[in-house]
Amino acid sequence: MAFAVEALAEMMVKEGHEVLVLCRTPRKDLVQDIRDGVHLHRMPLAWSDARMAESLIATAADFKPNLLQVHLLTGLHFQAVLKTAEACRCPLIHYLHIYSLICRANTLFRDGRSCTWLCPPCRRHAQAMQNYTAKVDGVVAVSRGVLDWHLKAGQFAGIPQAVIPNAAPRKALRSARNHHGRPVLGFLGRIAPTKGLAWLLQVARELGLPVKVAGTGPEMLMHRLQQEFAGELVEFCGWVDADEFLPTIDALVVPSLWEEPLGRVALEALSHGVPIVASRVGGLADLLVDGVNGWGIHPHEPESLAIALKKLCEHPVLDPTTVQETMRAYVPEKICAQVATFDRQIIGV
């Protein structure tokens, strides 16, 4: 999410806006800086809520914004945000990147499965957060799925809303790979129980397909996966540069078991012209065009992954240019224009 906020701030600066980013830092001292035209004000995590709120309000008021965007409340009391908007006399738009307003774990995932509704502790948490969400002036979600979950949980009732995804980074088009055998599958990103890697490795082993795993995770989980699956067909690559990794595979598999809000790795793959085999959950469903830029699977239908991978074997080369073209709506200029249009709607100009 930090990458998405950074990219949005830089895009807005390029469009001629003045941008101040207020955030937290593990460093002991306050950090103020300007990077790529973006003003940065980083408050130490060690600061008390009261001191942090005082700095937040004073800094924002001195900057004199005509709009306040909130991208993450974690580690920040919502009352401080509301007081900041009041002190600046400007509207407030909340951006939904994750589920922290309605789920204490941020994932809508419990006991190995995606949640179908909020558990009692999360319902109480969501009800408390309505004291914040009822007072914002607008809400933007990175995907339809993320917005629908919050609306279903009673958040942002009657508030102007928009779905604006993160911008897809511009990437060099990879050349179509020449197949003389099995397609090479890739997994990229943080390795966690919510990500479905074990599901992928099990199905790939049954089908005899090679998999390159790029990413790291908790030591115990990594050890278990390597013990069970490491071998001739599975390569654990550790941390890699995505731009170097993606051209070496024939498809990126994103077998998320949770309601993935959007999926940055899927955006990166498609931007390279690499097709995806991805779960139809959260924002991933918005990206998929079956048979054009990949194939969709369903976490609650275990056989769906094998079916999709068999389709990939039957059609191993999806045209990279066509795959990349499906990202046309996600180019930075179009995303920035959508943000600016919604901002003007909320500001009233």
**CATH architecture call of the largest domain:** 3-Layer(aba) Sandwich
As a percent range, the share of strand residues is: 15-25%
Low-confidence stretches: none
Overall domain count:
2
Q: What gross morphology would you assign?
A: globular
Across the major sheet, the strand order is 12-11-10-13-14-15
The CATH homologous superfamily of the largest domain is termed Glycogen Phosphorylase B
The total of helices stands at 13
The mean pLDDT is 91
Describe this structure in words.
The chain contains 13 helices and 15 strands. With 349 residues, it is α/β, with parallel strands linked by helices. It folds into two domains: 2-167 and 331-347, Rossmann fold (3-Layer(aba) Sandwich); 185-329, Glycogen Phosphorylase B (Rossmann fold), CATH 3.40.50.2000. The model has no long low-confidence stretch (mean pLDDT 91).
Which SSEs are present, and which pair or pack?
Layout: H1 2-14, E1 20-25, E2 31-35, E3 38-44, H2 49-63, E4 68-70, H3 78-88, E5 92-96, E6 109-110, E7 113-114, H4 120-133, E8 138-141, H5 144-152, E9 161-163, E10 185-188, H6 197-207, E11 211-214, H7 219-229, E12 234-238, H8 242-245, E13 251-254, H9 264-271, E14 276-279, H10 284-287, E15 294-297, H11 303-314, H12 320-325, H13 332-347
Parallel strand pairs: 1-3, 4-5, 5-8, 8-9, 10-11, 10-13, 11-12, 13-14, 14-15
Antiparallel strand pairs: 2-3, 6-7
